[in-house]
Amino acid sequence: MGSTSLWQATAGDWRPAPPRATPSRAFDCLIVGGGIVGASVAYALSQEKPAWKLAVADRRQVGGGATGRNAGFVLAGTADHYAVSVAKYGRATAREVFAATVASQRRVRDFLARRPAASCDYLPCGSLTLAGTDAEAETLAQSAALLREDGFDVTFIPHDPLGRGFRAAIRNARDAGIHPVKLARALLAASGAAIFEQWPVTAVEVAGNALLARGERGALRAERVLLALNGEAPGFDAFFADKVVPTRGQILVTAPCARRLLSEVVYANEGYEYFRQLPDGRFLFGGGRRAFAKAEVGADESPTSDVQGFLEAFKNQRFPELAALPVERRWAGTMGFTRDGLPLMGRLPGLDQAWFSIACHGHGMGFGLEAGRLAARMIIAGDPPPLFDARRLDAAATVSGELPG
Ligand SMILES: Cc1cc2nc3c(=O)[nH]c(=O)nc-3n(C[C@H](O)[C@H](O)[C@H](O)COP(=O)(O)OP(=O)(O)OC[C@H]3O[C@@H](n4cnc5c(N)ncnc54)[C@H](O)[C@@H]3O)c2cc1C
User: Fold this and answer.
1) Residue 227: phi, psi to the nearest 5?
2) What is the mean pLDDT of residues 2-8?
3) 3-class secondary structure for the chain?
4) CA distances, 260 to each of 100, 169, 255, 276, 322 (Å)
């Protein structure tokens, strides 16, 4: 188990009514995994099927996985620059994927606007995507042109707007920062789902005309089950072994810096590095795994001296004024990478009403609420959304863990 993240330490009190006994009546839907995806599915189901009785079980606490261990960037798009996405998926699919993340951002804003008390530390600060090389600057220029042609409002900047030695940038004014654990909790509170924390599920099986989710603390009966296990899915069911690569991501956070040096959330070097200055002045730096890609595959949530050393060197090179500030917190989390960089949704073979929505390839805060809506529709309608249907991988080649995020 890794160290506690800033978000987990600052999310405040959370006392969902503890389930004392497992209820005799089956839940209409049990969601296994209380991260941003599980929480978004619960919220979307509560909107679409208000009469359904929902439950969420997590082997740790809500936000105990990647959702509580990320950087809190709510970015449009995928880990790839848009020109790379267009080359990889084709123009129409790349556009559809980008539009899904834009829709997700809108859903976050709408959700928060209807609940002024649940601010979730949302910061409509915009983002900068910075090119570390001339080649990447060219890709950014192409990406900005393609995005604008496809109706997405971004600005290409042919120099480094931060003056930190980068080559060019894209500014996306709609991107944002957020407190990811507060958002997951707020979605779950709004969904009315029963929350089973510290509740590992070990197997899902058919029991009469319902499903039984078994675990050491008891069995939960449900008409339908949705697995939202992210990078831990391969450890749960061999079905995911060739589909998801658990990949470690690492972060450090400094003591507060008295000067405000940065307002946007920043994605740099093809997404391999990212940073933001938090409202209290602290700097968060994440990434740094490109040179250590093999060692970073797996579900171990311990920070390593290699990646943390890289992140410190990156921080001090780009922001020499931060060099004397102590690093106050370091943590790691597990991302779920997929072969093609897109989330996976579908039905578990052999179990008619057991569904999954997993592996957002390092961008679950960006896909979150739209992934939740699409997965809820899948459960209700009985069909995965074509864009994220896991069956697309059936004919594809081996899993790659070498992708940014
Ligand atoms: C260091 C780092 C930085 C990142 N930065 C960003 C970012 O800035 N923006 C962004 O969009 N994305 C970011 N990501 C990716 C993002 O965090 C994930 O894509 C997102 O949180 C995935 O959400 P999820 O709900 O699918 O998974 P998770 O949040 O991982 O939730 C899965 C849950 O399932 C539970 N679980 C697993 N197995 C079981 C079981 N057997 N029984 C019960 N419960 C179980 C886990 O405890 C966990 O809580 C980052 C990830 C990392 C690690």
Assistant:
1) -90, 125
2) 89
3) CCCCCHHHHHCCCCCCCCCCCCCCCCEEEEEECCCHHHHHHHHHHHHHCCCCCEEEECCCCCCCCHHHCCCCEECCCCCCCHHHHHHHHCHHHHHHHHHHHHHHHHHHHHHHHCCCCCCCCCECCCEEEEECCHHHHHHHHHHHHHHHHCCCCCEEECCCCCCCCCCEEEEECCCEECCHHHHHHHHHHHHCCEEECCCCCCEEEEECCEEEEEECCEEEEEEEEEECCHHHHHHHCHHHCCCEEEEEEEEEEECCCCCCCCCCEEEECCCCEEEEECCCCCEEEEECCHHHCCCCECCCCCCCHHHHHHHHHHHHHHCHHHCCCCEEEEEEEEEEEECCCCCEEEECCCCCCEEEEECCCCCHHHHHHHHHHHHHHHHHHCCCCHHHEHHHHCCCCCCCCCCCC
4) 33, 20, 13, 11, 12
Instruction: Say if ligand 1 is within 6 A of residue 183 CB.
Output: no
Any ligand 1 atom below 6 A from CB of 38: yes
Q: Does the beta carbon of 229 sit less than 6 angstroms from any atom of ligand 1? A: yes
Q: Whose CA is nearest to atom 2 of ligand 1?
A: 70
Percentage of residues in the chain having pLDDT higher than 90 = 92
Burial code of 372-392, b = ≥16 C-beta within 10 A, e = fewer?
bbbbbbbbeeeebbebbbbeb
What pLDDT shows up at residue 22?
61
Is residue 178 lining ligand 1, measured as CB closer than 6 Å? no
Average pLDDT, the chain: 94
pLDDT of residue 17: 66
Tokens 């090119």, located at residue: 131
Is the pLDDT score of 400 beyond 50? no
Ligand 1, atom 19: closest residue by C-alpha: 364
Q: What pLDDT does residue 404 have? A: 46
Task: Give the rounded percent of residues in the chain with a pLDDT score beyond 70.
Answer: 95
In whole angstroms, what is the distance from residue 206 CA to residue 223 CA? 10
Q: What is the pLDDT of residue 394?
A: 87
Predicted pLDDT at 21: 54
Q: What is the position in ligand 1's atom list of the atom closest to the CA of 358?
A: 26
